[in-house]
Amino acid sequence: MNFLIVGLGNIGSEYADTRHNIGFMVADELVRQAGASFSLLKLAYYSEFKQRGHNVTVIKPTTYMNLSGKAVNYYMQQCKVPIQHVLVVVDDLAIPFGSLRMKPKGSSAGHNGLKSIEQLCGGQVYPRLRFGIGDNYPKGRQVDYVLGPFDKEEQAELPALIDHAVKMIQSFVNIGIELTMTNLNTK
């Protein structure tokens, strides 16, 4: 079986360690733990490895967040991955920092990367791993918050959270979304 793991983020050093780039950070750690590496290919940084007999492709779109669907659609076709085997790792303002929740489908909730995937990949029915970044920002400052770095307390917790997200992705590939949600979603 073929799987496509998509870490959402923005390319460029100015975005490197921002909340909006947590998808890239999780993808980097997944690939590192698999002993693989990324290459710059069409529309994305691309990596692939085998996990328990499954072909796992990992991409970090280079299209910027608002056009992520373009890269996802391209690699779904190229790698022959059905939509239910695509997992999008995304930052989520609606859940508290430290919460990790996998879902089989859902709305974009205003997230431009998810909106693009919905438009170009056939709707809202695709798995996603929502990485909670919280909503601790003053009214009207959402963009600054999302494109800003994690604070010191959050940075201290990030390695363990990213590692848990990697375990969730590995579980998704090995045993499927339902058992992964039951066993590994956090509050």
Provide an overview of this structure.
This protein has one domain: Rossmann fold. Strand 2 and strand 3 form a beta hairpin. 39% of the residues are buried. With 187 residues, it is α/β, with parallel strands linked by helices. It has a seven-stranded mixed β-sheet, with helices on both faces. It is found in: Cytoplasm.
What can be said about this structure in brief?
The protein is an alpha/beta fold and 187 residues long. Helix content is 37%, strand content 22%. Strands 2-3-4-1-5-7-6 form a 7-stranded mixed β-sheet, with helices on both faces.
**CATH homologous superfamily caption:** Peptidyl-tRNA hydrolase
In the residues, how many domains can be counted? 1
Largest sheet: 7 strands, mixed
Order of helices and strands: EHEEEHEEHEHHH
Q: Helix/strand/pairing class, anyone?
A: alpha/beta
Distance between the termini: 30 Å
Mean pLDDT level: 96
Total number of beta strands? 7
Helix content: 25-40%
Based on the model shown, name its key terms.
187 residues, alpha/beta, Rossmann fold, seven-stranded mixed β-sheet, 37% helix, globular, Pept_tRNA_hydro_CS
Topology:
Elements: E1 2-7, H1 22-33, E2 39-41, E3 44-51, E4 54-61, H2 68-78, E5 86-92, E6 100-103, H3 112-121, E7 128-132, H4 142-146, H5 152-175, H6 177-184
Parallel strand pairs: 1-4, 1-5, 5-7
Antiparallel strand pairs: 2-3, 3-4, 6-7
Helix pairs in contact: 1-5, 2-3, 5-6
Active site: 20
EC number: 3.1.1.29
GO biological process, one term: rescue of stalled ribosome
